[in-house]
Write a structure and sequence with these properties.
Length: 405
C-alpha cells in the first residue's frame, strides 16, 4: 500500500514528462513526409526515450548494487539530459516561431487600407524546408551539448583560483588559502576513483583549511560510505570542515553527519570554531541546509546562532544554499559566505531556470557593505552526467587585505 501511494506521488510529473516528449516529437515530425511505418517507429523510440530513465532509476532502487547499475544509470541519465535539451530548444524554437507569426499578423492588421502586402505568405514547400532546418538545428545542438557535457562531467574538475579582498583583514591572515569542495553527489555514477581524484587535487594546494559546502552524496551510508572514504585523507593545516546540503537529508541525514565525523571532518551545524593562523584568530561557522528542518525539525538553519559568542575579527560562514545569504547578512556577523547548491546551472539552457530560482548563480557577489558571497559551481553533477556552459570546479580561495572603502 505504501509503495502504491509513493508511486502515485510521482505519477503527475511522469505524465508531464511523457507529454513533453510526445509534443516535441509531434513538432519535430510535422515538416516530414514520412510513411506511417516510419512514423510509428519514431513514436515507439520517443516513448522508450521517455520511459528508459525512469525504468533505470526504478531498477537500481529495486536491485541496489547490481552489476548493471552503473551502465543503466549512466545511459538513462544521459538519455534524460539529451531529451531535456531537445525539449527546451524545441520550446524556444516554437516560441520564436509563434512570435514571428504574431508579428506578421500585426503588420497585416496595421497596414493602411488598400496597400498591397509586402510579401506573399510562404508556400508549403518553403515552410517544410525551414521547419526541417530548425529541427535539424535543435537535434544537432542537443547532441553537441550532450556529447561535450558528458566529456566535461567525467573529468576531475580544474582548480579555480579566486582572490577575495577583505577590508582590514589581519595581516597575519593575508594569503590564507581555503580549498572549497561542493556538490560532489557521490552516487550511482560518481564513485570512489572520482573522489580520490578530488582529494589528490586538493592536497596539492597546500591549503590552510578545506571547506565542504554540502551535497556530498545521493544514497545511504551503508552503500556509499566506502565510496566517500578518501575524504579522510584530505590534508590542510587547520582541518576539514563540512556543512550539510539538502541531499544528505534525503538519505538519513543523521547517519551521514555521524559518518562525516568518522572521516575526520568537523561538521558545523549552527555553530562555529575559532581557528588560528600566524597568531591571528578567525571564526569559521556553519549552518544546516536551508530546508533541513523539513526532515529533522531541530535542524533549522540559524546564522545568528552559528555566530553567537564568536570573537571579533574575520568571520566566515559555510552555508549550502546561496539563499541563506540575506539572513546571514542581516546578522551583521559575517565577512564572507561560501556556498554551492546551484551547480552554476550545470548545463545549457537550464542556467536560466536555476537563475530564476536562485538569487546568485555562481561566482563572487557582494551581499552587503560587509558581507561577500562566493558560490561554487560544484565538483560533480546531479541527474544527467552533463556539464556544458557551467564547468565543475575545485575552488582555491585566497584571502587578501583591502583598505576600508
Amino acid at each position: 500500500m505504501t509503495a502504491a501511494v509513493g508511486l502515485l506521488r510521482y505519477l503527475p510529473p511522469l505524465l508531464i514528462w511523457l507529454g513533453l516528449h510526445l509534443w516535441t516529437a509531434r513538432t519535430l515530425m510535422a515538416p516530414l513526409t514520412w510513411s506511417r511505418r516510419w512514423r510509428f517507429v519514431v513514436w515507439c523510440a520517443v516513448i522508450v526515450l521517455a520511459v528508459y530513465p525512469v525504468a533505470a532509476m526504478s531498477f537500481t532502487r529495486i536491485s541496489p548494487g547490481h552489476p548493471a547499475e552503473f551502465g543503466l544509470m549512466f545511459s538513462g541519465m544521459t538519455a534524460f539530459g539529451f531529451a531535456s535539451v531537445v525539449i527546451a530548444l524545441r520550446v524556444a524554437a516554437s516560441c520564436a516561431e509563434a512570435s514571428m507569426r504574431a508579428a506578421r499578423a500585426l503588420r497585416q492588421r496595421v497596414r493602411p487600407h488598400g496597400t498591397p502586402a509586402s510579401a506573399s505568405p510562404p508556400d508549403l514547400d518553403r515552410r517544410r524546408f525551414f521547419g526541417k532546418a530548425i529541427n535539424a538545428g535543435v537535434l544537432s545542438s542537443a547532441a553537441g551539448v550532450t556529447a561535450v557535457g558528458v566529456h566535461s562531467a567525467a573529468k576531475i574538475p580544474e582548480v579555480r583560483s579566486v582572490k577575495i579582498s577583505i577590508p582590514n583583514l589581519d595581516p597575519a591572515l593575508e594569503g590564507m588559502v581555503i580549498a572549497q569542495l561542493s556538490d560532489i553527489h557521490v552516487g550511482p555514477t560518481i564513485r570512489r576513483p572520482y573522489v580520490q581524484g578530488l582529494v589528490d587535487s586538493v592536497n596539492s594546494l597546500d591549503a590552510d583549511l578545506v571547506a565542504i559546502t554540502g551535497d556530498l552524496v545521493d544514497g545511504f551510508v551503508s552503500k556509499l560510505g566506502p565510496e566517500l572514504a578518501p575524504l579522510a585523507d584530505l590534508n590542510s593545516r587547520l582541518g576539514t570542515f563540512v556543512v550539510t546540503g539538502n541531499h544528505e537529508y534525503y538519505w538519513r541525514g543523521e547517519e551521514w553527519i555521524e559518518y562525516f565525523a568518522r572521516l575526520k571532518m568537523t561538521v558545523l551545524g549552527n555553530d562555529h570554531r575559532v581557528l588560528q593562523r600566524n597568531n591571528a584568530r578567525f571564526t569559521l561557522a556553519g549552518v544546516h541546509d536551508l530546508h533541513a528542518a523539513r526532515h529533522i525539525p531541530s535542524h533549522v538553519s540559524d546564522p545568528a546562532r552559528a555566530a553567537h559568542g564568536a570573537p571579533e575579527g574575520l568571520r566566515i560562514l559555510l552555508a549550502h544554499q546561496p539563499r541563506s545569504a540575506p539572513e546571514a547578512s542581516e546578522t551583521g556577523a559575517y565577512d564572507l559566505q561560501l556556498s554551492g547548491h546551484t551547480h552554476g546551472g550545470q548545463y545549457v539552457p537550464f542556467q536560466l531556470m536555476v537563475w530564476l530560482a536562485q538569487p546568485y548563480l555562481a561566482g563572487l557577489h557582494r551581499v552587503s557593505d560587509r558581507m561577500q558571497l562566493y558560490v561554487s559551481r560544484g565538483c560533480g553533477y546531479w541527474g544527467p552526467p552533463i556539464r556544458a556552459g557551467a564547468a565543475s570546479e575545485i575552488t582555491k580561495i585566497v584571502l587578501t587585505r583591502a583598505a576600508t572603502a
